């Protein structure tokens, strides 16, 4: 850091601006910054600030892939990015995307990884060993012959990383790569990256909304404002201690070690003495011969906020799909308001329950944000005036007013997630299922989403979230259910869960920061 002036940058951005075709305003506005080899840089900024766009410009995919336009220049190793032959720059600059699915071309893991090596003209006889090494680095050596489609979200993310590691790029960009990983896999992932970074002397750019696990490793932290200009550039520890007001203004979340007050869990609003909304009795599900859920039973009560936890591949998303009737169990029964789930009409079921997917774009069906939000209201026959005012309230609530005419698929990761929440709120559901609510959100929008969740709870909605974010569980949930080896290994108050060290280890969970370091929790004056 201090000797930057004497080093040659790997990337040099000079007054670089980027415009998407359909927008008059620049998404990246006259950005001037240098990035160095052998430096781990943490890039933070509000949702929609342009972080992913910047990543795609750095590896040369943009502007071509979106017909955007640029001004200024990006030099990589002293040469303008557009002067690199097609496909060359993205071998030197590897990206692991926010959404791993967008980078796969093949059906099986083995073929996907072989495809990467073929593009690099690696001889066939070397391929197998290299693929196996990369899979071992991410703990996925048993999945060589699996179909990518059949993997869980976290498992896909690990394959995406393996495919980039195979290229041994000079510069590695990680765009929220750990959000889908269980807490232990997240630490292992970061340790793998740091080990390789040292071995290969790579530069690494980490785009993250939750800095906690990276702070101790990163050499440098950049904060972007809404115009994608660098407003803070310093060492992470200095940034979190000395720029507190600026960080608040730019919606950056503080890692727990830098938060001033101890997080207090919110009081419970569940009503265990009232009838459950949903009852799950002896539910069993398997894929082919692999048992995923092995006769599990539990009930969901009005107003409770319940977290489903477990390692990658534990069956959390599968459980949500069963509870929303997107999948059918092989055995067992699910009832909603004492009526068998299969006996509900599709229309009634969708009115009473909402589901926000892990990958929000999987549920988009219209080609403009406004149409997407009003689609359900129209189906429910909502009168035009009411529909308009509900839609505009939701657009405002979720900060999407500016984007209402845009194609949902063109939104940033955080915006897509907020849109999928909006589509679930045309009426107040009895039960809301939410796969990774905080994924891709900055501090401000996370807070707002949680406010929405708590408002719903006050109206009696039960909310079931799947999450790998233990801080969220500690602060907001009254109940945690841990899935492990097909069964429910824990069902109770999170405070009690944090004391179960053997169980946490087995389920690859970690207790939240203030429990791990209770004596150090209030270190910030
Ligand atoms: N393909 C596209 N076409 C048009 N506009 C886009 C496209 N992709 C992103 N945008 C817009 O550009 C802005 C920046 O998006 P980007 O994905 O770079 O933000 P981000 O900082 O990575 O956000 P997040 O933290 O939510 O992932 C957003 O307002 C987004 O809606
Ligand atoms: N269509 C499928 N065919 C076969 N196996 C599948 C299929 N979909 C998922 N699986 C497997 O079922 C298991 C559970 O997957 P699921 O997506 O429910 O896990 P998860 O707990 O949500 O994981 P993550 O935390 O990574 O999102 C995983 O081992 C996965 O590989």
Automatic annotation (TrEMBL):
<dbReference type="InterPro" id="IPR003593">
    <property type="entry name" value="AAA+_ATPase"/>
</dbReference>
<dbReference type="InterPro" id="IPR027417">
    <property type="entry name" value="P-loop_NTPase"/>
</dbReference>
<keyword id="KW-0813">Transport</keyword>
<dbReference type="InterPro" id="IPR015856">
    <property type="entry name" value="ABC_transpr_CbiO/EcfA_su"/>
</dbReference>
<comment type="similarity">
    <text>Belongs to the ABC transporter superfamily.</text>
</comment>
<keyword id="KW-0547">Nucleotide-binding</keyword>
<keyword id="KW-0472">Membrane</keyword>
<feature type="domain" description="ABC transporter">
    <location>
        <begin position="11"/>
        <end position="251"/>
    </location>
</feature>
<keyword id="KW-1003">Cell membrane</keyword>
<feature type="domain" description="ABC transporter">
    <location>
        <begin position="278"/>
        <end position="510"/>
    </location>
</feature>
<dbReference type="GO" id="GO:0005524">
    <property type="term" value="F:ATP binding"/>
</dbReference>
<protein>
    <submittedName>
        <fullName>ABC transporter ATP-binding protein</fullName>
    </submittedName>
</protein>
<dbReference type="Pfam" id="PF00005">
    <property type="entry name" value="ABC_tran"/>
</dbReference>
<keyword id="KW-0067">ATP-binding</keyword>
<dbReference type="InterPro" id="IPR050095">
    <property type="entry name" value="ECF_ABC_transporter_ATP-bd"/>
</dbReference>
<keyword id="KW-1278">Translocase</keyword>
<dbReference type="InterPro" id="IPR003439">
    <property type="entry name" value="ABC_transporter-like_ATP-bd"/>
</dbReference>
<dbReference type="InterPro" id="IPR017871">
    <property type="entry name" value="ABC_transporter-like_CS"/>
</dbReference>
């Amino acid at each position: 850091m201090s000797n930057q002036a004497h080093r040659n940058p790997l990337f040099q951005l000079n007054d670089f601006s980027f415009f998407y075709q359909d927008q008059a305003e620049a998404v990246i506005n006259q950005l001037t910054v240098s990035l160095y080899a052998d430096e781990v840089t943490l890039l933070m900024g509000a949702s929609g600030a342009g972080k992913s766009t910047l990543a795609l410009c750095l590896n040369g995919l943009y502007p071509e892939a979106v017909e955007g336009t640029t001004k200024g220049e990006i030099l990589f190793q002293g040469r303008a990015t557009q002067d690199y032959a097609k496909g060359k720059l993205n071998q030197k600059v590897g990206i692991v995307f926010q959404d791993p699915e967008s980078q796969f071309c093949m059906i099986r893991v083995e073929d996907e990884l072989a495809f990467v090596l073929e593009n690099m003209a690696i001889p066939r006889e070397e391929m197998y060993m290299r693929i196996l090494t990369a899979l071992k680095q991410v703990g996925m050596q048993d999945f060589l012959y699996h179909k990518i489609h059949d993997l869980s979200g976290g498992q896909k993310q690990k394959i995406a990383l393996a495919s980039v590691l195979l290229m041994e790029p000079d510069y590695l960009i990680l765009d929220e790569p750990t959000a889908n990983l269980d807490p232990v896999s997240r630490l292992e992932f970061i340790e793998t990256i740091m080990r390789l970074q040292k071995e290969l002397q790579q530069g690494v750019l980490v785009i993250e909304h939750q800095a906690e696990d990276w702070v101790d490793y990163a050499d440098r932290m950049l904060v972007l404002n809404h115009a994608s200009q660098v407003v803070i550039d310093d060492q992470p520890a200095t940034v979190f201690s000395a720029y507190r007001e600026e960080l608040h203004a730019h919606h950056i979340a503080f890692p727990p070690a830098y938060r001033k007050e101890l997080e207090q869990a919110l009081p419970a609003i569940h009503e265990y003495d009232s009838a459950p909304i949903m009852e799950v009795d002896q539910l069993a599900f398997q894929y082919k011969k692999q048992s995923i859920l092995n006769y599990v039973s539990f009930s969901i009560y009005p107003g409770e906020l319940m977290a489903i936890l477990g390692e990658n591949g534990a069956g959390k998303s599968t459980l949500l799909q069963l509870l929303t009737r997107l999948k059918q169990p092989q055995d067992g029964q699910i009832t909603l308001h004492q009526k068998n789930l299969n006996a509900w009409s599709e229309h009634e079921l969708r009115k009473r329950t909402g589901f926000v997917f892990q990958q929000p774009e999987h549920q988009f069906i219209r080609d403009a944000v406004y149409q997407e939000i009003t689609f359900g209201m129209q189906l429910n026959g909502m009168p035009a005036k009411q529909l308009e005012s509900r839609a505009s309230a939701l657009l405002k609530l979720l900060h999407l007013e500016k984007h209402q005419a845009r194609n949902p698929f063109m939104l940033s990761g955080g915006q897509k997630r907020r849109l999928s929440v909006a589509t679930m709120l045309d009426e107040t559901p009895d039960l809301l299922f939410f796969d990774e609510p905080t994924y891709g959100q900055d501090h401000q929008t996370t807070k707002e989403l949680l406010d929405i969740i708590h408002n719903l709870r006050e109206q009696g909605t039960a909310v079931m979230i799947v999450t790998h974010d233990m801080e969220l569980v500690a602060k907001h949930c009254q109940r945690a259910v841990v899935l492990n080896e097909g069964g429910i290994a824990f069902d109770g108050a999170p405070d009690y869960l944090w004391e179960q060290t053997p169980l946490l280890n087995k389920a690859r969970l970690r207790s939240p920061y203030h429990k791990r370091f209770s004596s150090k929790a209030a270190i910030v004056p």
